[in-house]
Amino acid sequence: MIKLKTNSIVKLCLSIVLCICFLQLPHVNADNISNNAAEFTISPVYPHEQKEDDAGYFDLNVKKSTTVPVKVKISNLNKNQDIEYLIKVGNATTNDNGTINYTNFKNKKDTTAKYQLTDFISKTELKQKVTVKAGSSSEVTVNLKVPKQKFPGTIAGGIYVERLTNAYVNEKSGMNTRNHFSMTLPIILTEQAKVKRIAKMELDKVTVKNGPEITAKLHNVKPVMFGKLSIDSKITKKNHTKTLVHKSVNNYQVAPNSSFNFLASDSSNQLGAGKYTIDMHLQSGKRKWHLVKDFTITAQQGVPLTKRTGWFGVSMLLWIIVVVLILIIAALIVVVVRQRKNLKS
């Protein structure tokens, strides 16, 4: 009976230790969405300006002062219900995670862009609705009106199709649940296909947020779309060579005339107030860029020295864990010693 009690106490203490350890692990949330319930497909209907017929998206070589009909075929796979769809056209931008978003609907043109895709489309065609009968298909047309003045490089965007008729009743709860299903077809435009353009990356600014979080705004100032971009960044104290924070990423994709925010350091690095320098090396194929900029972390933005170092250069969180573990071990020793005394008596 005494032995069972001792084992129970040991198990309880071990459980506490495990809980403390698990507190240090990041929580991962998995959100799986099945596209089977979308019940529709979209496909491009290529115009004569299409470069490759098996591209799966619109890759058009256009001429000035022409109108190019871009058609999307929407197939309703539901044989029992007519479905309404929303069709919108957006411009290509670069997401902060290094992917291209072909349907940005905020029509704020980049300062370095001469044109963007939505400049070539009438307002009535930027946003349309269509109802496709059950088990049938329908085509939606967006006319691209290429201006008289030639445009350099590449212009990118996309056609976004969203199913609107998608409310259904959950039989178990009786509540109305609404799912959103959408698909996108990219549109790539070039006018002077034989003229090669060279990408150019610039470091616009460095932003410091409380924590602190250090973000570098990288800017593609040319009408060139490219991929396989690698970024290697280092943060040092100003006029020092010791690297405080190092981060590298690969396989970023960049839209023409677009910018994105690169998180060079998050709050876990616990940088204090002071003057710093960010040194960045970027490469895509044979093209390389070296970007450097100084920045300052204020006392309000930085982590206080005591919070960063704790006692004797060790973080306070680690000290708390050590103290808790010592108390648990001490409690175990006391329990074992008392049990042995009871057995002897």
TrEMBL record:
One Pfam family hit: WxLIP_PGBD
Name of the molecule in the record: DUF916 and DUF3324 domain-containing protein
Entry superkingdom: Bacteria
Keywords, alphabetical: Membrane, Signal, Transmembrane, Transmembrane helix
Signal peptide location: 1-30
Cross-referenced InterPro entries: WxLIP_HBD, WxLIP_PGBD
Transmembrane intervals: 311-337
Organism of derivation: Ligilactobacillus salivarius
Residues of the WxL Interacting Protein host binding domain: 173-302
Chain ranges of the WxL Interacting Protein peptidoglycan binding domain: 40-162
